[in-house]
Each structure stands twice: as C-alpha cells, then as structure tokens.
Amino acid sequence: MSQPAFTPDAYAAQLAAKQQRLHELLAPFAAPPAQVFASPLSHYRLRAEFRLWREQEERHYAMFEAGDKHTPILINDFPIASQRINTLMPPLKAAWQASRVLSFKLFQVEFLTTLAGDALITLCYHRPLDAEWQAEAEQLAARLGVSLIGRSRGQRLVIGRDYVAEEMTVAGRTFRYRQPEGAFTQPNGTVCQHMLQWAYDTLGPRDDDLLELYCGNGNFTLPLSTRVRKVLATEISKTSVNAALANLADNAIDNIELVRLSAEELTQALNEVRPFRRLAGIDLKSYDFGTVFVDPPRAGMDPDTCELTRRFDNILYISCNPETLARDIARLNDTHQVTQCALFDQFPWTHHMESGVLLQRR
C-alpha cells in the first residue's frame, strides 16, 4: 500500500461506495438506511503477519500481492497497523539481525496487539527450537515487554502468555477479554467497540433469553448477556471455547451456558434429531428464546441453520460478507423484515466490510 492512498478524501469516497453497495444489496428487502461506523484512517489494525525476505544477509519484513509469491514488498513501517506494532517492528528486526540464534531459518513474524496495549509476537521457523533459542527469546521478550511464541513443526514454545488481554467498554461497563494466539479476533479494535455497542443497543433490554451461534471467544456474548435473562452460546473451536470460558470467569458473568457445538449440530439438537453428550445437564426446553444472534463466517449460514433462525421473533445478524448476508435475508424475507441496519468499516482501504441487521417477525 502506498502512502498517497491514506488521505481523508480517498477514504470518504471509498466508504461512500461501500455504503452504496450495501444499500443496493439490501434494497430488495426495503431495509432502512444503514447507520455507518467509520474507521480511523491509520493505526487501526491490531494484528499483522509478515513473511521475511532475505537480501544481502539481511532479513526484511515483507508482504506480497495476491497471487505473486516472488515479488516482495519490503516493509519498514506499516501505517494501517497499531502504533504498538509499528513501535515493535524496528527493535525486533534489530534483534534478529544481531543474533544468528534468533534469525536462523526464521521465515515469518506475527504480531497480535490490543487497544489496552498488550502485545504478543510469534516467530515461525523452519528448524527445531532448542534451549539456546529459548534463552535468547526470553531476553528479547523482556526487553520488548511482550509475550513471545516460537513455532516450528511440532513445536510451540510460549514465553509469557499465549494470549493478549483486551478491554472493551459498552454502556459504561468495561469487559475484559483473553484473545489467544491463532484464534479469530476482530482486527479493528475501534470499530469492534462500535459493533458491540450497536448490538447492545439494538438488542435492547429484554426479559427472555438469547441464543448465540458462532460465539468465538465471547466477544459479543459478554455485553449481550447483560440485556437478557440468560444466554445459550455455541462455538466449535476448542481454542475459542476455552478463551470464552476464561472470559466468563474473568468478568464474573454467570448467566451464560457455553457449549462446544457447531451451528449445524445445535440445529439437530433443537430439532431433537439426535442427542449430544456435550449438552448433558442443559435443559434446552427451559429456555425462552426471544432473539437469536449470529455472526457466521464469510460463507454465511447453511440452509438448516437459516431455517432454525426463522423460529425466533428477532434475528440479530452480524456479517463479514454482504453478499451472503443478502442471500440469507432473501431466505428469511417471507417471515422477517429488516428493521435496523449498520455498516462497520472494519477493513478500510479494501473492498471488505462488516454489516449488521436486525430482522423482526412480520
């Protein structure tokens, strides 16, 4: 990415184009105008991944255009990444340049940071990591004030913690999150906070229960749980489930049941197609669900899950792909209508966008 692209006028034009695109996709459903949440123009991305490119005995941070693995774009700073990442990049590079132990067969570097200022660096190698590497890596982590993970085939050595600590404030309450290395987290922390507040406001105070599919590490689960009687949340990733359970404990929230099931499996359980040992002790019939919250992957909801959501009076849907969002709304349009809509610009300077809708029973 070239520096001239980072101008307010260019950003405003791009955001307007995204708004128009979302409007056109949702126009067949008579959706109201979208509330738009813009991103900071720079230093918004909390994670970054770089390959290393060797030139004249020096390894550089590098990125590649899609489809081209042979023409590197050498990186000295990265204006879309957080200030913390940009601050860490030069001393980390100096450290591997000064140490054969740290640099030998190092091929990739990953940064994970938070709005709260925490940082984790992962160094990836094409060689086994030994005690000499561990000793130097421990000194490096202490100098940089970070946690550090070394990865090679069959190895994962953790110095400090294997997660970063984040804080998000919604409706005046601060929620603490563990965000593990290798698990999905929202990359744009500022916009993520807008998403949480929008979902909280849109759900509103209720006296019934919430079903959440694809809950991840509990990013939305925690603030939404304060709006309802109780929550049943599902997630298939073990890493995300473990993080979510830790986050429930860290925030002293006790009205959430978390189950490691896919959305498809939960559909089977609710339809009484088959029992699941992972639901032992949970009485599904005790829930009075008024709303289902979904934040699916880019592929959207599978047809069975889409049919499941039709049962609920309210469907709160966060999407990272407006095309599959529009497809799923079309499937539900005979029973539900879009009553609220939002655009969250998680990915400025790209064509990607996040959006949110509230569908309510006609």
TrEMBL record:
The keyword S-adenosyl-L-methionine applies. S-adenosyl-L-methionine binds at Q186, Y214, N219, E235, D295. The keyword Chaperone does not apply. Keywords: Methyltransferase, S-adenosyl-L-methionine, Transferase, tRNA processing. Gene3D superfamilies: 2.40.50.1070, Vaccinia Virus protein VP39. Its EC number is 2.1.1.35. The active site is at C320 (nucleophile), C320, E354 (proton acceptor). It catalyses: uridine(341) in tmRNA + S-adenosyl-L-methionine = 5-methyluridine(341) in tmRNA + S-adenosyl-L-homocysteine + H(+); uridine(54) in tRNA + S-adenosyl-L-methionine = 5-methyluridine(54) in tRNA + S-adenosyl-L-homocysteine + H(+). Dual-specificity methyltransferase that catalyzes the formation of 5-methyluridine at position 54 (m5U54) in all tRNAs, and that of position 341 (m5U341) in tmRNA (transfer-mRNA). Belongs to the class I-like SAM-binding methyltransferase superfamily. RNA M5U methyltransferase family. TrmA subfamily. This is tRNA/tmRNA (uracil-C(5))-methyltransferase. It comes from Pseudomonas fluvialis.
